[in-house]
Amino acid sequence: MGEKVTIATVARHAQVSRQTVSNVLNAPHIVREDTRRRVHEAITALGYRANQAARQMRTGRSRLIAVRIEPTRDGINGSVLDRFLHGLTETADASGYRVLLYTARGDEQEIATYDDLLGAYDLDAFVLTGTKHGDPRTAWLAERQVPFVTFGRPWDTPEAHPWVDVDGAAGTAQATRHLLAAGHRRIAFVGWPAGSGVGDDRRAGWRTTMAEVGLHDAAPDRETEDGIAEGQREARALLALDAPPTAVLCVSDSLALGAWQAARDAAADLAVIGFDDTPVAAAVGLSSVSQPLGEAAARCVELLTGLLDGQRRDPRLLLNPSLVLRHSA
Amino acid sequence: MGEKVTIATVARHAQVSRQTVSNVLNAPHIVREDTRRRVHEAITALGYRANQAARQMRTGRSRLIAVRIEPTRDGINGSVLDRFLHGLTETADASGYRVLLYTARGDEQEIATYDDLLGAYDLDAFVLTGTKHGDPRTAWLAERQVPFVTFGRPWDTPEAHPWVDVDGAAGTAQATRHLLAAGHRRIAFVGWPAGSGVGDDRRAGWRTTMAEVGLHDAAPDRETEDGIAEGQREARALLALDAPPTAVLCVSDSLALGAWQAARDAAADLAVIGFDDTPVAAAVGLSSVSQPLGEAAARCVELLTGLLDGQRRDPRLLLNPSLVLRHSA
DNA sequence: CATCAGCATTGGATCGTTCAAGGCGGCGAG
DNA sequence: CTCGCCGCCTTGAACGATCCAATGCTGATG
Asked: What one-character DSSP code corresponds to residue A193?
């Protein structure tokens, strides 16, 4: 339709210079009230939108945030990222940022992608999900002073970089207390093999809570890979014990679902609580610990915009999950 | 570390002019073999990456594709978009494009977002998911000649714009044939209220297949909103019939899961097949019709790059889903 | 030997924005 | 009265790439 509307068009229309229009947008306080209003009127009248490419070329900032999207590994856990991503996009929008996606197989390729994105698109910041011990990605980014936030704690050095995370231990502690309050005494835990930050954290919440009430002995602790079949297997093993537990707390919904199915098949009276409150849990009526993903995403964006604006807020945030009760416990 | 690497840096390093470097990148055939090689060596040696902002300003193309991410409505169906998005990002990457996310509440706001994205970021193209009758979004984009592809047919006018879709009718037909081959004669369908393109399409596959074998009379057809509780209700109603069906085909996994649970609770021998092959279906062992989401995404990107390069391929693609068999049928 | 075609290469202009520097009127201080 | 300063605005230059027109070079031809 109409010709391209640039800052010059607006300037002509408002009878001022280009720079004044630019100032209205970027430093309104140095422009006189009525001039500012006149420029704003011209902007809306013409439907002007600042060209990001041109702005970016001059300032080196793109107002773009990169987020990795992973292949849905499990299928069950995929929805977690999905919800997080949605929250991220929405909050970023509100702050004038946009979310750019990328994929990568393996850390090395991911780092190459950083390089690419930074070089070609001048990305402002990165959001990483799923951190692990000795993560090479955060090291690379930190070394180059690229602003980034992780959703997930750096498990080695808590102060290494800004992060947002959900307090897994608090979640399992809450679940454990709920089971205790319901009269359970033998409460087992089915978790991942020790060594993963997330898994160990969640296990710790259960363990300390059980220890607090002196029930540590009546608390079988199992380690297994993630999966429904694995959950079934562990539940069967637990039920075959001399003094089987009356409740099981699982580190994931996959394991919890398996355990729940195994208990039902064996007609055993076993309370089960999972973790992540995935759609699967909701669908089959499984109680689960729910992460505040929307809030986590919002905090990530807040931290990033803070970083980019040079503000210094406390760059580490631990959020509390909540327990969602359904039929299974 | 090193200073910013621009096209001039590369030119100096390779002992040629800026334009020659540009030609190597954009029109390699007009540059002499050995010159080209020398330039390429300089590029890799310096780690040069073309600045997209500068390129975009001159050419007006951003190599960016926008995709909407929706709030996970159901929770169960969210994973479909998730997998599609992953495929999209991966294929786009391979073609040198990047995926930009956006959210919007309602069509009006979404159209405003188009305007914004086009004005500010010079987006090259859009991918829309979930089309409906009389979609105002596609009309808006078409009117402005913005390149776009929809994942989902335009249900009013098949030739309106390029699209990729999965043949829902073929999927339900395949599922119906499977049930027939397994000896079922009374096969019910639980679908959404007539009027939604997707739902009607899926219903049609079942109906025509049943009609082909003259079993149309023995085929109860139910209409209901989506949801697990709704699926349970419909299954109970079906089982209470004088001549209850021995199998149920559902338009979604949510409904199928509900039906499957109701049948189990009633200890009824009822085969159930769902649609979308969501993680929930996989988790509980529900047979389902699976959409080739990765391929659909790849085709979307192919179509778009074709459009952008001015190629004229057939811009309409109907893909075949496949039946995934588990315990439930 | 002069001319010209064919091709690779060069310099300058350009996209839309922001930064740096400067102009200009008015006001208070010396 | 003059000077300096402040607030507000304008002008020229720059970011890094591509496009366009012009130039240099080589070799073949009249």
From this structure: P
The closest of A229, A222, A169 to A198, measured between CA atoms, is: A169
Contact B153, B165 (CB under 8 A): yes
Please give, rounded to a whole number of angstroms, the shortest distance from the CA of B225 to a CA of chain A.
Answer: 16
Q: Are A161 and A172 in contact (CB under 8 A)?
A: no
Tokens coding B291: 């959409």
Is residue A311 predicted with pLDDT exceeding 80? Answer: no
* Residues whose C-beta lies under 7 Å from strand D: A 15-20, 23, 30-32, 35, 54, 57-58; B 4, 6-8, 18-19, 21-22, 25-26, 48-51, 54-55, 57-59
Single out the residue of A217, A270, A214, A212 nearest to residue A240, CA to CA: A270
Report whether B261 contacts B255 (CB < 8 A): no
pLDDT tens profile B82-139: 889 999 999 999 999 999 999 988 889 999 999 999 999 999 999 998 888 888 999 9
Which whole number is the average pLDDT over B209-222? 91
Which residue carries 């970023």 as its tokens? A92
| A-B C-beta contacts closer than 8 Å | 158
Are A250 and A273 a contacting pair, CB within 8 Å?
A: yes
DSSP for A45-96, written as a single string: HHT----HHHHHHHHS---EEEEE----SSSSTHHHHHHHHHHHHHHHHHTT
- Summarised one tens digit per residue, pLDDT across range B229-253 is 999 999 999 999 999 999 999 999 9
